[in-house]
Amino acid sequence: MTIRRIVSLALGLAAIGGAELTARYLGFGDPPLVILDEKIEYYLAPSRSYSRFGHEIRVNRYGMRSDDYDAAVADRRINFSLLGDSAVYGTRLNQTNTLSAELQRTLVAKHKDQRVLVNNISASSWGPENLLEFYRRFGPFRGSAAWVVQSTHDMTDVIDLVGNTVPYRTATPYCALHDLAISIWRWFSGFRPHNNVESIGYEDKRHRADKALDALIMTLKRDYAHVTLVFHATREEAISGKAAGLDHYRTVAKEHGIYFLSTIDLYTRAYRNGHLPHYDNIHLSYEGVRILSAQLAADSRPVDHGD
């Protein structure tokens, strides 16, 4: 082998090594993993810890992004649960800045009890069916109060195993560059036109989502002293003051005789006061987390159902 080839090889290896280190510095290489499931669709791999884009992610024994505990011996008087999708999971947020962690700190201060626990029962892109099947599999998680956080898009969010891409990794990438390549491929795939016809129609989605949400609420009412259905407004809905899901979820709460909380006015006031509760159209910023957690902590009485 000539000196030129050796130098070229060394430079190539150095370039690959530099690219790998750069990708790791940016946060690639340690993505949260999920387990595929024919009923739940997917859920976070239990008992794992990750560092992703500078954010700590810790998953307990049940697949929740929250503190670990034993549900069999938990004191239900100081046990709370938040159920939802990526807004509850805390996309782009550190573990300590998620809605469940912030609410837990608020409730610890309110109840003067360091043992207070808020379960984060969520994953990105989960709908009512995912939540119901997860709770049936790993629950019950009995407690004092449970908040089910739903957005307008959850009205048609159902499990569809045909052609859907899971918003997580199912296996650890070989290296940070491999992880980066997967992320780039998925990003570009989102812009490509898809010719496949949806396997589930709109009306079927509405029916299935409502049926699952009804079953979930009835299950939670048996396991918690208080259940609240929370409508999580998007940025567009908060700014416009109009939300297709608002009346729907208010009606669902009224039919089940549970508390209802809308965030649309809460977020609207925040924007008017110069605060930014969202970092994109749907996900909460840490400012939004603090605003909503304070409201949830005060949620200890029935609220107006719009009667």
Description:
It is a single chain. With 307 residues, this protein is of the alpha/beta class. It has a domain at 64-161 and 202-297: SGNH hydrolase (Rossmann fold, 3-Layer(aba) Sandwich), CATH 3.40.50.1110. 42% of the residues lie in helices and 16% in strands. The protein has ten helices and nine strands. Strands 6-5-7-8-9 form a five-stranded parallel β-sheet, with helices on both faces. The chain has a two-stranded antiparallel sheet with strand order 1-2. Strand 3 and strand 4 form a beta hairpin. Helix 3 packs across helix 10 (286-297) and helix 4 (128-138) packs parallel to helix 6. The longest helix is centred in the first third of the chain and has 24 residues, at 3-26. The N and C termini lie far apart (84 Å). Residues 300-307 have low confidence and may be disordered.
In short:
The chain is an alpha/beta fold and 307 residues long.
Q: Indicate the CATH architecture of the domain at 64-161 and 202-297.
A: 3-Layer(aba) Sandwich
Average pLDDT works out at 90
CATH homologous superfamily grouping of the domain at 64-161 and 202-297? SGNH hydrolase
The separation of the N and C termini measures 84 Å
Profile the largest sheet.
5 strands, parallel
Roughly how much helix do the residues carry, as a percent range?
A: 40-55%
β-strand number: 9
Major sheet strand order: 6-5-7-8-9
Specify the number of helices: 10
Shape: globular
Task: Determine the strand fraction and express it as a percent band.
Answer: 15-25%
According to CATH, what is the topology of the domain at 64-161 and 202-297? Answer: Rossmann fold
